[in-house]
Fold this sequence. Notes:
The chain has 13 helices and no strands. It has about 290 residues and is an all-alpha fold.
Amino acid sequence: xxxxxxxxRYSNATYRAMRRLKTVGLYAGVAAVLAxxxxxxxxxxxxxxxxxxxxxxxxxxxxxxxxxxxxLFNNPVFMGALVNSGVVALVSTAISLVIGIxxxxxxxxxxxxxxxxxxxxxxxxxVFPQVVVLSGMFEVIGWLGLYNRPSGLIVSYLILTLxxxxxxxxxxxxxxxxxxxxxxxxxxxSRLRILTHVLLPLMGPAIASTGLLSFILAWNEFLxxxxxxxxxxxxxxxxxxxxLTGSSRYEYPFGQIMAASVTVTLPLLALxxxxxRKIVAGLTSGAVKG
Length: 290
């Protein structure tokens, strides 16, 4: 065996070892990230199956005691809050999508001088924290007579979901080929017909991902729901979880809170799994050109 052949074999072996080391490091990093992200949710599941002193004992296996869930499902306030959250999140998401699609088409396709300023204003509204607009929204909700009503939450949630929806859909519409629209204009289609019959079928992934993110934003909202709703029958899930009480005055219902957190997360997980492919396609659209 010559020295050059031995050197090449040594180099190939070193290269394979380095590749294996990189692969192991990559998988180890992914495993660490997954453990960091999923462990809190798994710990919530474990804690939701414990009661009494078992809550203060460190065990990684669930206790398989579902009494916390039965107490939640027998709680009319919590079950009503689930329904209220679903209705408010669905309606606010639907309204924001309808208005956002129309606004995104105007900002993405109809070129007019203040269009850029309008888009910047939309982005600035989404940047402001909720507490900045809380007092102003409280006056608007009171003036409209929607205080302590789910419809008041729908109106207030639009200030969160509508700018986000409009901004994302505007970027998506700008990436669609203009030739489709030009051909439709030549055939005599109106702008509204172009939007509904030509562009809208192509916007399925973007609408699915944007709608789901808007739904999650409305589903998890706490500050407006706490401020604008007064009675238990109109509360949403985040506030209802915060107001859970134990069987006695000095008992903190940690197990019930964990069970409620798991319960309200399951619908979101189901939606993500159902629309997984459309979400990925919508979030990655426009990432590759050519």
